[in-house]
Amino acid sequence: MGEVKSKRMPRAVRERQMLDAAVRTFGRRGYRGASMDEIADLAGVSKPLVYLYLNSKEDLFTACIRREAAALTAAVRAGVDPTLPADRQLWEGLLAFFTHTAENPDGWAVLHLQARTTGEPFAAEVHAMREEIVTFVTQLIGDASRAGRRDRELPLQEAAALAEALVGAAESLAAWANTTPGVPARQAAGTLMNFAWAGLGGLMEGRPWTPPERAQIPVAAG
Amino acid sequence: MGEVKSKRMPRAVRERQMLDAAVRTFGRRGYRGASMDEIADLAGVSKPLVYLYLNSKEDLFTACIRREAAALTAAVRAGVDPTLPADRQLWEGLLAFFTHTAENPDGWAVLHLQARTTGEPFAAEVHAMREEIVTFVTQLIGDASRAGRRDRELPLQEAAALAEALVGAAESLAAWANTTPGVPARQAAGTLMNFAWAGLGGLMEGRPWTPPERAQIPVAAG
Amino acid sequence: MGEVKSKRMPRAVRERQMLDAAVRTFGRRGYRGASMDEIADLAGVSKPLVYLYLNSKEDLFTACIRREAAALTAAVRAGVDPTLPADRQLWEGLLAFFTHTAENPDGWAVLHLQARTTGEPFAAEVHAMREEIVTFVTQLIGDASRAGRRDRELPLQEAAALAEALVGAAESLAAWANTTPGVPARQAAGTLMNFAWAGLGGLMEGRPWTPPERAQIPVAAG
Amino acid sequence: MGEVKSKRMPRAVRERQMLDAAVRTFGRRGYRGASMDEIADLAGVSKPLVYLYLNSKEDLFTACIRREAAALTAAVRAGVDPTLPADRQLWEGLLAFFTHTAENPDGWAVLHLQARTTGEPFAAEVHAMREEIVTFVTQLIGDASRAGRRDRELPLQEAAALAEALVGAAESLAAWANTTPGVPARQAAGTLMNFAWAGLGGLMEGRPWTPPERAQIPVAAG
DNA sequence: GATGAATGAGAGTTCATTCAT
DNA sequence: GATGAATGAACTCTCATTCAT
User: Fold this and answer.
1) Which one has a higher pLDDT value, A208 or B121?
2) Is residue C18 within 8 Å of residue C50, measured between CB atoms?
3) Which SUPFAM superfamilies match (chains A, B, C, D) (predicted)?
């Protein structure tokens, strides 16, 4: 015996196989470049079964987006301890984010590259997830601001713009880290944390942000 | 009277019309989502003429990428005065970049969103342009570092990673500024300049980077 | 009732229908003149199904050539008894050849007219089959020569050239017999056999080749 | 000085250039495979000029057929001396035929391969020319028959069928001689003359047809 | 007389999607 | 529950043909 012909599997399992195949195919070929044939083949099922379970290409893509978005936000949430100070929370969130995207490159490609370029029904889906993260970061920045010097608290809109920049930088660095060999998640997170917290100015003046516990987080390599 | 049927135009003019239409269509629909029919219609010509002048969909897309990449780098180069100090150069470059992308949203979409997701022949084309910019920013960071405190000069690899983060942040902010109404190029550039130069830490401690001339560049609104 | 919509047939049957339609269409219109639409219509199926089963126009044409070439050589081989003397073998081969081409005019047109004019991938396919036949005839001529007067055995090259002429004459006569009404296969074979074996000189001197069994094979009609 | 831009040529010359280009292109690509663009390019003129002079692709192809057919029949006619005995006339005709087709391979391809496979308006054009030649050969065979033994004169229909076979063999040998290197026109004509006049039987019994002294065959070279 | 500019019509091919079994 | 059979619609690309200059 063996799994040569593993027919008659419970629906949930089959569905997961299909989504796995779809995420991989959409992530590499894009929405239009991916064909239902290829996805069905990769999932090891017939095409009509894909339609029976997932209705249409649109629905299938949406299901991929939702699953991957949920997985990413869950991973980040799970990595952050909300009782810690803001900078520590940010550090942990970044670490979780870079780790998850590195481990799920196809899922990340679906979210970051493909869903955003394929047009409205899908872009909105991703936008919602992103908004959640940006809001979280905005709050973090606000908290840190209040906990810092009292002279000048950052107004909300300013904090939002900064959160946008920070999240954008993280997204770009994730793509860069996934593409460039030898750049682990921890290092990407370190680079960005330094950049964000100390700024170029601070870095050049020898005042880097210092990560917790593991004393040395090198900015790039060395 | 009336330009109802403005036929028979010199080749150069028609070609520009076609590229304009193609950039707009590719930018909004993506490479595969765009149809040559739609492009020809939008350009006001017949499909065969598009093929006569631009050869194929691939060639047309490549021509779009090249034109837009050249326009963007030209705009940034024109905006920067290489005799100024590094932070001023960065500021001017960002301003030029945000201004140009705001004025050419479709061109920017082609470069940033579509070309990178459509696969190798095209992604490489954009990668070359981006590399040029990243190198420029890396040098800027290096220069600033050498001009600052001598205690610790940033190593090249560190500067490169920071440049990557900075460029990535700029790219993301450009998309954000183009999408969010009421965020002009100047403000996007200001936010990013502050973020990069002072860092969140610096900002929260009331040490923002101060832009030249026009005394106050508020981070977000104001 | 009625077979108005006889859908859902097994693949093998559909494939044969498609090949039949393709042979007919290619035979009459030529490779380029035939459209996949027409072939699909004639086969009673939709175009995508033709592509699903036969891949491309090129592959479809190649499949036609192979099928018809195999059928023709099989028919000739089946008609010839290799234990008989050379002239009897030639007679039987010609008879089988003219009979088969008369019964499959479209297949013969594909092989003789269309495949040879459509360019290299296809011409080579037919050339191989023809070579087989020419070789067979060359051997026959050589055998007959050895069995005849010993004064002068035909050298191989001469036999090959004669075989070429004989096969060429047969091909031309096949087209003529197929086009001219009232010229049955048996008569075409008789004419050629006389021409080949006795030559014009022998015929005019009243020394025709005499076919076996059925005493009288008239040269043309009568 | 210099023919760099040899514009403004008399119509007759331009037309000949176009026909030359057309014969070459049609001969190699076939009617449908040849594009008016390629023909105009090869002729060194613009496409509208081709249309101005030759009206349409159909007309152009017809013009090619007519010109090449006229040239071929003229060459054969010029090679034959009608005062000689029948076998000598046949020999001279074959020699002229093989010589002309060897010297005009594209023209021969248009007549023999392309025009016959492209469908009715064109096939009829070639058929007429061929009929002329077949009739000529039929007469030759009849003459020879009457001049030979009186026992049995060949009936007309028999002579016609033999003429058909002879012409068919000649056509096939022409293609073979043009394709096979090292087979000059004289040899092809010799092979066929032997085949036709003596027959395989006669050849094998050592009674070949003997060509006239080489001296007075001025058809090809000398 | 000669041509650059332009197109209507149709070709091969692919794909998301649905029955009938 | 699962699939082999089948298709409507759309897409890229080409070609013969014609104006306007």
Assistant:
1) B121
2) yes
3) Homeodomain-like (SSF46689), Tetracyclin repressor-like, C-terminal domain (SSF48498)
Q: In terms of Cα–Cα distance, which of D115, D27, D19, D29 is closest to D60? A: D19
Neighbours of chain D (3+ CB pairs under 8 A): C
What span, in angstroms and rounded, lies between the C-alpha atoms of A60 and A79? 29
Indicate yes or no: CB of A195 within 8 angstroms of CB of B166.
Answer: yes
CA dist., res. A189 & res. A174, Å (int): 9
D216: distance to nearest CA of chain C, Å?
23
Distance CA A102, CA A106 (A): 9
Q: Which of residues 3-42 of D touch strand F (CB under 7 A)?
A: 32, 34-37
Q: Which residue from A154, A161, A191 is facing B162, i.e. has the nearest CB?
A: A191
Pairwise CA distance, residues C150 & C144, whole Å = 11
Closest partner residue to A176 (CB to CB) among B158, B168, B196 is B168
Residue D1, exposed/middle/buried by CB under 10 A (0-12, 13-18, 19+)? exposed
Task: Please name the member of D117, D169, D198 whose beta carbon is closest to the beta carbon of C169.
Answer: D169
Q: How many helices (H) and strands (E) does chain B have?
A: 10, 0
The span from the CA of D16 to the CA of D43, in Å, is 9
Higher-scoring residue by pLDDT: D11, A104: A104
Please say if the pLDDT value at position B9 is more than 80.
yes
Q: Which residue is nearest to nucleotide E20 (CA to C1')?
A: C8
Residue B134: inside a domain, yes or no? yes
Q: What is the pLDDT along chain D (222 residues), one digit of tens a residue?
A: 434 445 667 788 889 999 999 999 999 999 999 999 999 999 989 999 999 999 999 999 999 999 999 999 999 999 999 998 888 898 899 999 999 999 999 999 999 999 999 988 899 999 999 999 999 999 988 888 777 655 567 778 878 888 898 999 999 889 888 888 888 888 888 888 888 887 766 665 666 666 555 444 444 333
What does residue C172 show for φ and ψ, rounded to 5 degrees? -65, -45
Q: Which two tokens stand for residue B39?
A: 């492009």
Tell me which chain A residues have a C-beta less than 8 angstroms from the C-beta of B164. Answer: 172-173, 176
- Tens digits of per-residue pLDDT, D110-143? 999 999 999 888 999 999 999 999 999 999 888 8
Q: Give residues 43-82 of chain B lying near strand E (Cβ < 7 A).
A: 45-49, 52
CA–CA gap between residue B142 and residue B197 (Å, rounded)? 13
Is the shortest CB-to-strand distance from D58 to strand F under 7 Å? yes
Tokens standing for residue A21: 């195949």
Please name the residue of chain C whose CA is at the shortest distance from the CA of residue D202. C198
Which residues of B in 27-46 have their CB below 7 Å from strand E's atoms?
Answer: 45-46
Write out pLDDT tens, residues C29-76.
999 999 999 999 999 999 999 999 999 999 999 999 999 999 999 999
B213 Cβ neighbours under 8 A, 6+ residues apart: none
Q: Residue A37: inside a domain, yes or no?
A: no
The whole domain housing B98 covers: 63-204
What is the domain-level CATH number for residue A185? 1.10.357.10
Euclidean distance between CA atoms B136 and B141, whole angstroms: 9
Tokens found for residue B22: 């193609």
How many domains does chain A fold into? 1
**SS3 label, residue C217:** coil
Q: Which residue has the tokens 């470049």?
A: A33
Please give the residue of chain C at the shortest CA–CA distance from D150: C205
Nearest protein residue by Cα to C1' of nucleotide F2: A49
Instruction: Confirm whether D50 is domain-assigned.
Output: no
How confident is the model at residue D211, as a pLDDT? 57
3-class SS of residue D202: helix
Residue A189 lies in a domain: yes
Give me the helix-helix angle, A57-79 and A120-147, nearest 10°. 10
Q: What is the DSSP string of D85-145?
A: -HHHHHHHHHHHHHHHHHH-HHHHIIIIIIHHHS-HHHHHHHHHHHHHHHHHHHHHHHHHH
